[in-house]
Amino acid sequence: MRPINVALIGYKFMGKAHSHAFKDVNFFFDLELQPVRKVICGRNPEPLKKAAQKWGWEEYSTSWKEVVERDDIEIVDICTSNNMHRDIAIAAAENKKHILCEKPLAMNVGEAKEMVQAVEEAGVKHMIGFNYRRVPAVVLAKKLIEEGRLGTIYHFRAAYLQDWIVDPDFPLIWKLRKEVAGSGPHGDLNAHLIDLAHYLVGDIKSVMCMTTNFIKYRKLPAEERELSTMLTAKSGEGMGEVTVEDAAFLLAEFENGILGSFEATRFASGRKNYNYFEIYGSKGSIIFNLERLNELQFYSREDTPETQGFRTILVTEEVHPYISAWWPPGHIIGYEHTFVHEIADFLECIAKDTLPIPNFYDGLKCQAVLDAALLSAEKGERVLVKDLLK
Amino acid sequence: MRPINVALIGYKFMGKAHSHAFKDVNFFFDLELQPVRKVICGRNPEPLKKAAQKWGWEEYSTSWKEVVERDDIEIVDICTSNNMHRDIAIAAAENKKHILCEKPLAMNVGEAKEMVQAVEEAGVKHMIGFNYRRVPAVVLAKKLIEEGRLGTIYHFRAAYLQDWIVDPDFPLIWKLRKEVAGSGPHGDLNAHLIDLAHYLVGDIKSVMCMTTNFIKYRKLPAEERELSTMLTAKSGEGMGEVTVEDAAFLLAEFENGILGSFEATRFASGRKNYNYFEIYGSKGSIIFNLERLNELQFYSREDTPETQGFRTILVTEEVHPYISAWWPPGHIIGYEHTFVHEIADFLECIAKDTLPIPNFYDGLKCQAVLDAALLSAEKGERVLVKDLLK
Amino acid sequence: MRPINVALIGYKFMGKAHSHAFKDVNFFFDLELQPVRKVICGRNPEPLKKAAQKWGWEEYSTSWKEVVERDDIEIVDICTSNNMHRDIAIAAAENKKHILCEKPLAMNVGEAKEMVQAVEEAGVKHMIGFNYRRVPAVVLAKKLIEEGRLGTIYHFRAAYLQDWIVDPDFPLIWKLRKEVAGSGPHGDLNAHLIDLAHYLVGDIKSVMCMTTNFIKYRKLPAEERELSTMLTAKSGEGMGEVTVEDAAFLLAEFENGILGSFEATRFASGRKNYNYFEIYGSKGSIIFNLERLNELQFYSREDTPETQGFRTILVTEEVHPYISAWWPPGHIIGYEHTFVHEIADFLECIAKDTLPIPNFYDGLKCQAVLDAALLSAEKGERVLVKDLLK
Amino acid sequence: MRPINVALIGYKFMGKAHSHAFKDVNFFFDLELQPVRKVICGRNPEPLKKAAQKWGWEEYSTSWKEVVERDDIEIVDICTSNNMHRDIAIAAAENKKHILCEKPLAMNVGEAKEMVQAVEEAGVKHMIGFNYRRVPAVVLAKKLIEEGRLGTIYHFRAAYLQDWIVDPDFPLIWKLRKEVAGSGPHGDLNAHLIDLAHYLVGDIKSVMCMTTNFIKYRKLPAEERELSTMLTAKSGEGMGEVTVEDAAFLLAEFENGILGSFEATRFASGRKNYNYFEIYGSKGSIIFNLERLNELQFYSREDTPETQGFRTILVTEEVHPYISAWWPPGHIIGYEHTFVHEIADFLECIAKDTLPIPNFYDGLKCQAVLDAALLSAEKGERVLVKDLLK
After folding, report:
1. Segments of B175-316 assigned E as strands
2. Is C150 near chain A, with CB under 8 Å?
C-alpha cells in the first residue's frame, strides 16, 4: 500500500464522518492506497485541536489556504459550510490536489460551473460527497434497474424528511442562513434525492416547485451573538431571520418521460433522517428508506401472480454490493459505512487514474435542478432545467 | 324502524358495495330507518336482473328517468359513470328525492354548481360518496387533530397509487375515456385525497400540477367494439385513444399555510389500492394507508423523549369510531364496512333532518381543486382554486 | 337455490358472526342452497329476542332440545359455551341434523370421541368452526406448501396472543371457569393454532407444556352474582377463583420431524387478536398474522440470490382463494368474512353430499393434542399424543 | 489517556469484530485508557499474519501460552472456538490478566465453574462477550423496565433464527462439532437470548426443552479433510457426522413467575441474524429484533386508550444510550458498534477498578440454563436450573 496524504477542511459532522472513513477504510477494504490523516483545518483552534487528537490527524491548521498549497498533500477533502466550497475547491485544483467535496457542490449553478472549469483545467480527480450512492441497498437498486428488472420506469417518488427544527426554540444556526448555506432542506436534502434520481433513473427536464417557511425568526445561537451584524434582527433582541426555506416540494418531468416528485422538509415530526424513495416500473418497483438502510423493498411482476408482493431484501449477503468487506448475513451496517465505501472508491479511482463518480459534473447537474426549482417557486411556473445550464 | 325505499342507479362495483351496505346496515347499527332495496337501474337488462336477484332488490328497471319519478322512492343512490351524475342528480332533486351520489360529484365545476343549485332548491338531503371519511382510523385521525394532538399542521402528503393498467394489454374501458370519466386517476383517486385533506386539515388555496400519459392507445374492450364511433382509432384496427391522464401529481398550498402534495397514478406496480397520507404537525404526526385500514400510525412529541416513535394503533377497540357495532378488539374490518358506515350516517341524517357530511358542497369544493390542478398542468402555472369558483 | 332451514344455538359473539354469515353468504357466493335463518336459541328470552330481530331470525326459542327435534330444521349450528357442545351435538345427530360446531369440539378427548361416534352413526354432515382455515392468506399458504414451494418443512412456530384480561379488574366471566370453558387460552387459542398446524404441516407426535396463572382471583360479573354457588370464593366477598390457565406454552415434535411451538396467552399487553405463525422450510418460509389477515409473507430460496426477502403478498387478487367473490385488488376484507367462507363451504358440502373439512375428526385430533399438553404441564414430562387417543 | 496492551486470541469473525472495536473505541468515546493492539494469536501463521497487518496488530504469535505470560500484556481477549475458552482463561487469570471472553463461557457448567474460580482467585477483571447487552435499544428496554413502565412482567418470548446451514451442501465446519463447539445453536444463539433474559427480566427456575437434527451428515470442509480421524464418517467418503443439534426450543419458568420461551435454529429460511424478543408486562410491552437493531417497539397501557399501539422508537437520539458518541438522529449504527460499546465499558471498568457486567458469573448462570435445557431434552422432563449449579 502506498501512503497518500490527506488534508481535511472542516471538523464538524462531516469532518467526523470523513475522518472515521479515512481511519477505517484499510481495515475493511484491500486498497492500493493508504490514506494518511495529515492535517485537519478549521477556524477555531481549540475544538480543532481536540478533533485532531481524537480523530487521529497528525496536525491541525487554521489556514486552509496554506494547507492546500503544501506539497505533501495529495488529497483535499472539503467538509465546510457550503459558502466555502468554491474558493477551496478552486484553490485546491490550482494546486493540483485531488478533491472530495461535500454536497451540495456550490451555492448556485454559477459557482458550480467555475468549480467544474477549475478541476477540468487542473486535470485532478474530483468527487462529490453524495454518499448515499454507496448504500449497498441503493447500489443493488441500481443493479436491478440496469438488469431491466423494473422494465420501463414510470415514477420516481422521493422525500427527505427531518424534524430537527420543529421546536421554535431551536436556534438560528448556519444551516438556516442563506449567506452560508445557500438554501435550506432544498440544498441539504433535495440535493441528495435529485442526485439519487440522476443516478438511478435519468435526467430531469423540467420542474414545478413550492417552498415555504413556518417559523420566520429564531433566537441567535449563544456562541454567535457577535455575528448579529450579519442578521436582520427584526423580531426582537437576540433574534434573527431564517433566510432559507423550511420546506421545498417539487414535481419533476424527466427526459425519459418519468413523472416524479421530491419533497424535503425539516418540519416532519417523527422523521429523523427519512431519505425515502419509491421507483415504479412496468415490470417491478423498488422502495428504499435510509432509516432502514440495510433493506431494499422490491416488487416484481415476474413473480408468479399469486405470490407477487413487496419483498424486504436484507442487503447483508455476500452477494450484495460492498458487503463482503463487512460481516456475515444479518449483521447490519450503519450510516458511517457509506463514507467508508465512498473513500474506498475515491482512493481506487486515484490509484487507477479514473474519474470518480459522482463527480463535479454530477454536482453541477444537481445544482441546475436545485436552482431551477427555486426559480419555479419564485415565478410560479414550470421551469426547464436546461435553461439554467445555458 | 321505519322502512324507506331506495332506488339504486348503477350495478357495477359501486352498485355492489352500496347494495351490500343497504342490506347489512341494520344488522350492525341501531337506526330509525330501515332501507328497502326497492329498485335497481341499469342499461343492460340481463346482468341487471342477475344483480337484482343476487343482491336482493325487489325490482329492476332500465329507465332511471321513470324510477326517479316514482312516488314510492325516497332515496336515489347514484352509482353510475361520472358523466351521468348531473342529469340523474338534478332529476332526483326535482322529484324531491334524497340523494347519495358517488364521487367525483361531476365532470367539472360547472356541472357541480348546477347540482348544488338543484339540491338547494329542492331542499333534499344530499351526500357524496367519499366513503374513506368513514374509515374508523380516519375518523380517529380527525379526532386527534381536533383535540390538538398534532398541534399546528405543516404538511399533508398524500398519494393514491394503483397498478391495474400497467399491463399494455389492459383494454380501453370507460374509466380511460374523458367523455365518460371526466378524468383519469385525478378524478378517481386524487378526488378522495383532496376530500380527505379538506376534511382533516383545511382548504386548498393554490396548486401546481403535472400530468402524463404512458400508454396512449389501447385495444377496445370486446363488448364495446360497436362504440368505436366515439373513439379516435389512430393506432390501428380495434384500438382507441386513452383520453384521460395516466398520472396526476400536484403540489398544494393550503389557506392555513400547510404545504402539501397529492399524487395519483395507475402505474405504480405493486400498489393495489394504496390510499396513503401523512400529516405532520408541531406536536405530532399521523400516517394512514387504506391497504391496512384498521391501523393508524401516530407520533407524539408529547411522549417522553426517549420513547417517541410512530405507534401503530390497531383501530379495533370499542373506544374507536364505529367499532362497537362490529367485533371485539383485533378482529379487523374490511373495505365494504366504510359503505355500511356511510349508509348508516346518511340514514340517520334523513331521520334527524340534518345535512349529511360530506355533501354536494364538499363535492363542489373538491371539484374546484381538481379543475384547478388540470388547468395548472395545462398552463404550466400555479393556479388559485378560488378562480375556479368565481 | 334450494332453501335450507337453520337453527342456531347461542347468540353471543359467535352467534352474531354466524348469523351474519348466513345472511350474507348468497350475496357474494353462487350456491345451490340458500340458508333460511329459522330459529335462534338461548337461555335469556329478552336479549335473545332482540338478537333474533336484529339478525333476521324468524323465530327464537329457549329450548334447544325442542328445536333440534323439529322436522323443519336441517342444520344445527352450535355456538354455545364449550360445556354444551357434546349434548347438543349428540342430540342434533340423533335427529339427523347436519351440524356446524364451534371450537374447541369438546371439553376433553372423551367427549370428543362420543361426538364423533354420534355423527358417524347418524351419517350427517359435521363441521368444526376452525374458521381461520378460511382466511384467503391461509389457504394460499396451504397451496404454496402443497406445491412444494417451501420444500421440506423444519419448523412451525405459532402464537396466539391477546390482552383482554391483563386488567385485574376484569371480571370472572365464563371463559375463566373450567366447568364451562374446559380450559383457558389453551382451548380457546392454542386450539386454533394446533388445527392450523394439522391443516398446514402435519400431525403432532409429542408435546411438552408449561401453563401458569398470573391472577388467581377475580370479582364475579355483576349479572352472575347468583351463580356464586358454583364458585369457590376464597379471596373475599364477591370474588371467585380463576380455574383455567392464563397462559399455555407448548413445544411439539411432529410425526414428520418438524420442531414446533405453540404459545397462547391472554396477558400480552398490546396484542389484541394476534394469531401468528411462521413456517420454515428448506425452500422457503411463510409468515401469517391474523391482525393483518389480508397479507401473507413468503420467502423463497428460489428467487435470485440477491433479491431474496420476505415478500408481503396482499392477498386480495382475483387469483387468490375466495377473493373473486369480493372486491377488486387492494380492497381488503375483514374478520367476519372467514365465517362467510366457512358457511359457503359447509353449504356446498351438504349440497354435494361430501364431508366438510375440518370436521369432527379434526376436532378430536386437536382435542387430543390439547389434552396431551395439559397432561404434560401437570406431570412435567413429554407426552405422546397417541396415548390420549387410545 | 493511558495506553494498555491487548493480546487477542483468535482471528476469525470475532477476532475481526474485536480488533475493530479496539481500533475505533477512542475515536468515539472519551476514555482513560487507550488500548494498544499488541499481539494477535492463532494457529495458522499465514492468515494470522495478514489479519495482523490489516487490523493493525503490532505482532502476531502462534503460541497463546507464551503470549498470556508476557509481562507487557494487560488484557487477554479470547475469541477462539469454545473448547479453548477454559484453558486460555485460566492461564490468563493465573498471569493476572484482565479477561474478555467470548460467549458461551465454556463447554459446560463444570468448565464454567473452574473459570469463575480462576478469575476470583486472581482478582482480575473479567467480562463475557454478550455484546447484545450493548445495543442501545436493548439498554433502553432495560431502562424502561427498571422505571416500571412495563409493570409486572408476564412473558419473555425470544427466538434466535438463522438459515446458514439449510443448504445440505454446507460443510461440516467446527460449529457443527460437539468436541469443538459444545453445542449448536443452543450455545451459539440461545446463550444470547438467555443472557438477555437474565439481564432484562430475571433468573430462570426451570426449563423444558426439545432439540432436533434435520441433516445428520455433511461433507467435510476442504481444508479439514486431514481432520477426518476426529470424525465418525458413517455416511460415505469425505462425510462426517453433525454432532450438535440443529435446533433447540425451550420453555422456561422464571423465579418471578414469568412464563417464557427460547427458540434457536439454523434452519429458518429467510432469517439471517434474527435475534428477536418480546416482553409483555402489566403496563406495557417491548419488542426487539437485532436485524433492525436501531429500533425498539414499545407499547404502553398508560397512553390514552384510543392511541395505544406499538410505537417504533428509532433509538438514535442523543437521549438514548451510547448514541451521543455517534451521529445525529436517524443516522443509524450497525452490528459492530455493539463491540465498540462493550470494549469502551470494559476499559472503563478496568480504569475505575469495578467489575464489568456481564462477567463470568453471568456466563456461569447462562451455562447452567443451557445445560439444564439439554438435560431436559435428553430426559424428556422439566429440569430445575439450580440442580445444575449444585
Report:
1. 204-212, 217-219, 239-241, 247-254, 259-265, 274-281, 284-289, 295-300, 310-314
2. no
The mean predicted confidence, pLDDT, of chain C is 96
Dist. CA D8–CA D88, nearest whole Å? 11
| Location of C-alpha cell 401473507 | C296
Peptide bond into C104 cis (omega under 30): yes
CA-to-CA distance for C247 and B168, rounded, in angstroms? 54
Domain spanning B2-132, CATH architecture: 3-Layer(aba) Sandwich (3.40)
Asked if D37 has any chain A CB less than 8 Å from its own CB, the reply is: no
To which residue does cell 420546506 refer? A247
**D74-123 pLDDT per residue, tens:** 999 999 999 999 999 999 999 999 999 999 999 999 999 999 999 999 99
Taking the C-alpha atoms of residue C155 and residue D221, their distance in angstroms, rounded to an integer, is: 27
DSSP D233: -
The Cα-based distances of D299 to B296, C293, D80, D158, D283 in angstroms read 14, 21, 40, 17, 8
Chains that touch C (3 or more CB pairs under 8 A): A, B, D
Within chain A, strands assigned E span: 2-9, 33-41, 59-61, 75-78, 98-101, 126-128, 153-161, 204-212, 217-219, 239-241, 247-254, 259-265, 274-281, 284-289, 295-300, 310-314, 383-384
ipTM: 0.95
In D, residues 289-348, which contact C (CB 8 Å cutoff)? Answer: 299, 301, 308-310
D309, B314: Cβ pair inside 8 Å? Answer: yes
First to last CA, chain C: 44
Cβ distance C344 to A348 under 8 Å? Answer: no
Residues in chain C: 390
Choose among C144, C306, C317: nearest Cβ to A319: C306
Query: Domain D2-131 sits in which CATH superfamily?
Result: NAD(P)-binding Rossmann-like Domain (3.40.50.720)
A77 inside 8 A of chain B by CB: no
- Measured in angstroms, the CA of A342 and the nearest CA of chain D are apart by 16
At C331-344, the pLDDT tens digits run: 999 999 999 999 99
Give the chains touching B; criterion: ≥3 Cβ pairs < 8 Å.
Answer: A, C, D
Tell if the CB–CB gap between C273 and B330 is shorter than 8 Å. Answer: yes
Interchain contact, D20 vs A27, CB within 8 Å: yes
A residues 42-61 near D, CB within 8 Å?
A: 54-56
Whole-model pTM: value is 0.96
Please check whether residue B213 is in contact with residue B146, taking contact to mean a CB–CB distance below 8 angstroms.
no
Task: Give residue-wise pLDDT tens across range B119-176.
Answer: 999 999 999 999 999 999 999 999 999 999 999 999 999 999 999 999 999 999 999 9
Given an 8 Å threshold on Cβ–Cβ distance, is D301 in contact with C267?
no
Q: What ranges make up the beta strands (E) of chain C?
A: 2-9, 33-41, 59-61, 75-78, 98-101, 126-128, 153-161, 204-212, 217-219, 239-241, 247-254, 259-265, 274-281, 284-289, 295-300, 310-314, 383-384
**Nine cell digits for residue C297:** 409473507
Residue A253 to residue B212, Cβ atoms within 8 A: yes
- Give every CB contact of residue C92 below 8 A, 6+ residues apart in sequence: C68, C76, C78, C99, C124
> Could you tell me the residue ranges of all domains in chain A?
2-132, 133-358+366-379
CATH topology of domain B134-358+366-379: Dihydrodipicolinate Reductase; domain 2 (3.30.360)
In the structure grid, which three cell numbers stand for residue B266, read together? Answer: 395507475
* CB < 8 Å to C295, chain A: 309
What are the grid coordinates assigned to D335, written together? 452490528
Distance CA D219, CA D350 (A): 45
CATH fold, domain D133-358+366-379, is Dihydrodipicolinate Reductase; domain 2 (3.30.360)
First to last CA, chain A: 44
| B316-325 exposure pattern, b = at least 16 Cβ within 10 A, e = fewer | bbeebbbbee
| CA–CA separation, A390 and C251 (whole Å) | 72
